[in-house]
Specification:
Blueprint lengths: L1 H13 L17 E12 L5 E15 L2 E12 L6 H5 L6 E6 L9 E3 L9 H8 L19 E5 H4 L14 E9 L3 E13 L2 E12 L4 E17 L2 E17 L4
Antiparallel strand pairs: 1-2, 1-11, 2-3, 3-4, 4-5, 6-7, 7-8, 8-9, 9-10, 10-11
Length: 254
């Protein structure tokens, strides 16, 4: 009896139960982050194109577990000598404000465009709103252990109330907690979102959430869309790949 009891204690010491982690953001009023976003898209048979955005993210105020955040576009670059740069540079200075909760879920954002922004660029400003960092990846409601999985449904990936592909897609983003510390969580991701009989979106990636600073510290997702079209009875397939990357730093330019 005593031997069995001691063996049980020894086994528990060597193999402790996995701890549960309630993943929640903490915000500090006045905190400023500089964020670099890069998206490289390759259409089958064509050269890759990379778009870069630099934004700042400032915590304007904190009330309880919620924070009001302003994200401002500082730079938008389509590549060296790209003729679009001159036009779209007029978007720089656009800012988006909104409240975010401790799970990273934003309420509706308010767009504050530059005073001299041409009207023809307003649709682009609204489209950029859907690309802002950390908006559409809410942390799980329930506590998680390392190795646990959860799903962010495709409809919850839609970052804008006026609609996007995600609102009609099935599946979503399958997340796995791979590491958890007091101030930081590492999450692997697999994207599975059928868009209909002729379209399929899939991808894999990883993000690191800095819980203590209330921001996605790094994010990378490689995905692809396969399009099937039928013309005169013949079926053709086109593959589009995208490599989306994000890095953020506190108070310094990345």
């Amino acid at each position: 009896m005593i031997t069995a009891w001691l063996w049980t204690l020894s086994s528990l010491a060597l193999n402790p139960p996995s701890a549960e982690h309630t993943l929640r953001m903490s915000y500090q009023e006045g905190a400023l982050h500089h964020v670099l976003i890069e998206s490289t898209t390759t259409v089958q048979g064509a050269a890759p194109e990379t778009i870069r955005m630099r934004v700042t993210r400032r915590v304007l105020e904190v009330k309880g577990t919620r924070a009001r955040i302003e994200t401002e576009l500082k730079e938008l670059d389509f590549g060296e000598k790209d003729p679009r740069n001159a036009l779209f540079s007029k978007l720089e200075g656009s800012a988006w404000r909104g409240w975010v909760d401790e799970r990273g879920r934003f309420e509706a954002l308010t767009l504050n465009p530059p005073q001299d922004l041409p009207r023809l660029l307003m649709p682009m400003a609204r489209k950029l709103q859907r690309l802002l960092p950390g908006r559409s990846l809410p942390l799980p409601q329930a506590a998680q252990r390392v190795g646990d999985d959860w799903l962010i449904p495709a409809k919850d990936l839609a970052a804008s109330p006026e609609g996007s592909w995600a609102k009609s897609a099935e599946g979503g983003l399958y997340c796995t907690l791979t590491d958890a510390q007091t101030q930081r969580a590492t999450i692997s991701m697999e994207l599975k979102a059928p868009l209909g009989k002729q379209k399929e979106l899939s991808g894999k990636g990883q993000m690191v959430v800095n819980l203590g600073q209330g921001i996605v510290e790094s994010f990378r997702l490689k995905n692809r869309i396969v399009l099937e079209t039928k013309v005169a009875g013949d079926t053709s397939r086109t593959e589009i790949t995208q490599d989306y990357r994000l890095t953020s730093r506190l108070g310094v330019t990345p």
